[in-house]
Amino acid sequence: MKKLIGVLLVLVLLVSVAGCGKQTEQGEPKSDSTQSGEKDGKTDENKEVEPVAEKITLKIANYAILEKGYTEFWEKSKTAFEEKNPNITIEWVTAPYGEILNTVINMAGGGDKVDLMFGEMIWMPAMIEAGLAVPLENLMDKDFLADYYPEILEAFTIDGHLYSLPLYSSPSILFYNKTIFEKAGIDPNKAPTSYQEMLQMAEKISQLKTDDGNKIYAFGETTASVPVSGITLLAYTANFGGEYLNQENKLSVDNVGLKESLVTLKELNDKGYNPQNAKLKDLRNLFALGQLAMYYDNSWGFNGVKSINPAAADFTAVAVPLKGENGSGQSILQAHTFTVFDNGEDRMKAAKDFIQFMISPEVLADYMKNTTPAFAVCKSMENAINPLLEKAKAANTNLAPLPMISNLNDFALEVSGLAQAITVGGEEVDVALTNFKKTAETILNQ
Amino acid sequence: MGLKKETGDKLFSLILLLPAVITTILFIVVPILDSVYRSFLDFKIKNIISGTAGTWNSFQNYTRLIQSGKLGRAIAVNLIFVVAVVVLQFIFGMSLALILNQKIRGSRFFRSIMMIPWVVPTVISGLVWMWFYQPQYGLLKYLVSFFSGGRVTEFAILNDPKTAIIGIMIAALWKQVPLGALLLLAGLSNVPMDMQEAAAIDGANYWQKLIRVVIPSMLPVIKVTLTMSIIENFKQFPLFWTMTGGGPNGATTTLAVLSYREAFVSNNLGSGAAVTTLWMVLMIMVVFLFNKALRTER
Known about the structure:
The complex is a heterodimer. Chain A has 17 helices and 13 strands. Chain A is of the alpha/beta class. Chain A has two domains: 55-170 and 334-392, Periplasmic binding protein-like II (D-Maltodextrin-Binding Protein, domain 2), CATH 3.40.190; 172-332 and 407-444, D-Maltodextrin-Binding Protein, domain 2 (3-Layer(aba) Sandwich), CATH 3.40.190. In chain A, the strands form four sheets. Chain A has a five-stranded mixed β-sheet, with helices on both faces. Chain A has a four-stranded mixed β-sheet with strand order 8-9-7-10. In chain A, strands 4-5 form a two-stranded antiparallel sheet. In chain A, helix 9 (227-239) crosses helix 16 (408-422). Chain B is flat, with a radius of gyration of 24 Å. In chain B, 73% of the residues lie in helices and 1% in strands. Chain B has one domain: MetI-like fold, CATH 1.10.3720.10. Chain B has 15 helices and two strands. Classes of the chains: A alpha/beta, B mainly alpha. At the A-B interface, helix 1, helix 3, helix 16 and helix 17 of A face helix 1, helix 2, helix 3 and helix 14 of B.
């Protein structure tokens, strides 16, 4: 009898194990891309998109929901969109900024694709490489696309396909603290225009301390071990007319501009002007607390500064990026974007409606003007600019292209590694560049 | 005709083992073999999404990792971290166990309190230590400045490639010493008192008793504690990823960080699998050598 009970228990366990597997399969939503009449992520040009009638739950990946200062805007927009489109319910898929891309890609790997992703322009190559991003040129309304500045759409077009749509843009711009400038005897209304000028100012600023005796750093350029730091470093190098990759996206490290940018970065580090190994959020923190006089950030970074110290609005000013000896102060375009994934025609149509709802003057203009300072990418929002950004407006037109390579994130991490080698690692620029060349080539040859 | 009793018992025990065997094969053996197989393929995230198979790439995942110089460095960082943390964890854990094994007031309360770091999730521990180490306003900076009489005003342990690994080791020890101490304490309380008394009568002092009686008696517990520690630290990932992300300048890139970066930053699952395969082989070798060195007679 005991043995019989034992055998029965074993059977129950085995059935449970099998049951678990089945339950997971049932729990995973089926991709209905086969119903959409589209293959290989390409939309059918001749097919008319039918109006959405059935109840649809639109899954939108959005890290910003978790960030104080952005939640209210997104939740309000969700409510407004759902009121306007009663057949569509939005379901947020969230993860912290650093994890959202992996979350979305891993979900897709498990057969559970989101419909839409709000993210960074720099994530676009990874989503295209993964086969997730759907070309948008035929999905979006023609008059909606016609509102975009042509050069903006061009920046998001790869191999003839438009893969993401930006909400707004910003290159790295120079933020500076007018109060610290005044304290150092520098005219607060005159920002430096070149690295030479900045270094002269930095010498004066580095003598200062905060009221509670803390060090004031003169200049902040992020060099942390995260991809976004690497991208900011690409923009920093463009200030000097330098590049890491040429127009064919081949490694190009033997140029004067790149070397000059690295020598300057080393000088900033050796003189203690630049907070070592700092992430952008560390720089925002220091700037908000009055411990950093100047730093590079995207315009929307100011929202982070304000959330730490609301009084920062009183002492913050911005300027165009500095010019290196051989450069014109060029920067690299960055943007917050929407990317659509293929979950069938109805859900793609709903995603289109949400994008067109969000990227409209009614929803976005006030946000750009008062919440997250950024530059307009559409003609209809030309005047929706935060007064803080007026003096950096020219930066948005002096741009070098963002290299659209499939492993951009990995390459960007390697660029951060190079910056760390010459700063905290104490390596000479030439030695570090030789080592970088070796590792970067293995990444590009993947 | 019924089965013989012995055969029936064997069959019954086999049936009882079946769930464990099937679960082990399904959830451990198959994924490991699958990972080893994929380490020889050009297999990226797009293969999973599009449902296409990977292609054989002539050991390129391995050769590329070796050529980049990242693999050798990651192995070295991993071994340094494991050896240092395991040795220090044993020293601190044993010391704490010996103290708590004394009849001192409040030792029960202290035993409960000391488990707090072990209960804290590893990612949270990493974040707490990051704040402690923060270069501009972290507590450590002030302590170093205070105790150096203001001579060292800028101390950023995680920013220096020479000290970053030490910063992570401290966080790992803070988290792991309590469990080690608890296990060793359990072993210590089982050391026969009569042997210790006999050694004392023979004139052995405290250290002689400890080294010749206590430690040999608790060798099986020590072995389990150290094996657990080796495995735990070999696969340590959250502390590295949250505190340094493998930096600065690759100084804290372990095999765990490298495999994550290859698989989920580069989205090259084949390359990530190559790192984990080597990582697994290395861990098996280390545990095997350790067990051989500490072989206990039955």
